[in-house]
Q: What sequence folds into this?
């Protein structure tokens, strides 16, 4: 099983940005834990603060990976382009959010990704990534 985690804007600041909301662990540290925990899966990750780079990575991941775990962060609520990119590929996508977006500002309640996603995991902190990976692994 070959999976890629694609993270959007400001997720490079995990561990220092709003630790009450996002925790105090960097994504790189957490990714090492995921690689150890899911040794039977080949995990990759990509992060960008730039919408077009995220779209390019989604398109590139199509057919190269068995699944995409996408936390588009703020672009979830604004990017028709990212939603269209997911709609255009055949590789399944699980949308992930660290915080419960429905308990936050109203503009965060709308997702342009959810209608195209295989599933959505929201609000379990970094463990949301574990759950998304597990959704792809068939046992």
A:
């Amino acid at each position: 099983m070959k999976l890629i985690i694609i993270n959007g804007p400001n997720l490079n600041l995990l561990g220092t940005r709003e630790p009450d909301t996002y925790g105090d662990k960097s994504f790189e540290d957490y990714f090492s834990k995921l690689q150890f925990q899911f040794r039977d899966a080949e995990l990759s990750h990509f992060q960008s603060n730039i919408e077009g780079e995220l779209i390019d990575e989604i398109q590139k991941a199509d057919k190269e990976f068995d699944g995409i775990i996408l936390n588009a962060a703020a672009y979830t609520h604004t990017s028709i382009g990212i939603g269209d990119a997911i709609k255009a590929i055949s590789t399944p996508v699980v949308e992930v959010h660290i915080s419960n977006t429905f308990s936050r500002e109203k503009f965060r309640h709308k997702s342009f990704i959810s209608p195209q996603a295989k599933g959505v995991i929201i609000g379990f902190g970094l463990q949301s990534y574990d759950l998304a990976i597990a959704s792809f692994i068939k046992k």
